[in-house]
Amino acid sequence: MNEKTTAMNEKTTGINTEQVRDLTRRWVEVMVVGENLCPFAAAVLKREQIRFAVSQAHSHAEVARDFLQELALIQQAPEEDIATSLLIVPAALGDFYDYLDALAHCETLITEAGLDGVFQLASFHPNYRFGGVPASDISHWTNRSPFPMFHLIREGQMSRVLAHYPDPDSIPERNIEHLRALGREGLIQLFPPFADYCD
Questions:
Q1: Are strands 119-124 and 50-54 parallel, antiparallel or unpaired?
Q2: Cα 165 from chain centroid?
Q3: What region, left, alpha or beta, does residue 36 occupy, with left being phi > 0 and alpha being psi -120 to 50 degrees?
Q4: What is residue 151's predicted lDDT score, i.e. its pLDDT?
């Protein structure tokens, strides 16, 4: 376990479920919606259709168990009740590469459940790193969140909203340019917990 992972685990010790949920919701409000990193998030947030699920998992096996439970729940729920779900894992997967292993396993679980093309995952982590990009590059912050989490997305819903959005392929590059303009200190001013949860 490296120093960054140890520090992050110490910061999350003692944080209760409601605090985790509240901080994550504030991140969605301030960063994802407030900075328009996802043009489609505002509507589902306003309609209270985002589920903020907190896992108490401490191991890969427990993460997989909770992920399967969340996958079953969103599969059975009407889209108007749960449009999308964030499975937040505050007590495990502090190491980013450990998180990537768990992410790959969760993607395999979707395939094994016969739900390819129905659900997909987006990934967020306090120490998110894009491969082949310098560690100091601000682009990593487009996928940095207060806690490790898995974003379960309904592919049918995403296809519908993308059909009405001009040039959706430009969204990631636009987000990177926007965050680079803000800079690290600007991002921390917007969302002060980044100073504690992100390097």
A1: unpaired
A2: 22
A3: left
A4: 98
- Residues lower than pLDDT 70 in the chain: 1-15, 197-199
Residue 182 makes CB contacts below 8 A (sequence gap 6+) with 35, 138, 190
- Please tell me the predicted confidence (pLDDT) of residue 4: 47
What are the contacts of 6-13 at 24+ separation with CB within 8 A?
A: 6/94, 8/94, 8/126, 8/127, 8/197, 9/91, 9/94, 11/196, 11/197, 12/90, 12/91, 12/94, 12/147
Contact 170, 39 (CB under 8 A): no
Outline where the chain has alpha helix (H): 3-12, 17-27, 41-46, 60-76, 96-112, 155-162, 171-190, 194-197
Sheet-wide strand order for 149-154: 50-54, 84-88, 149-154, 119-124
Residue written as tokens 């990593």? 140
- Return the domain boundaries, the chain: 3-197
In the three-class reduction of DSSP (H, G, I as helix; E, B as strand; rest coil), residue 107 is classed as helix
**20-66 pLDDT, tens per residue?**
999 999 999 999 999 999 988 999 999 999 999 999 999 999 999 99
Q: Are 125 and 194 in contact (CB under 8 A)?
A: no
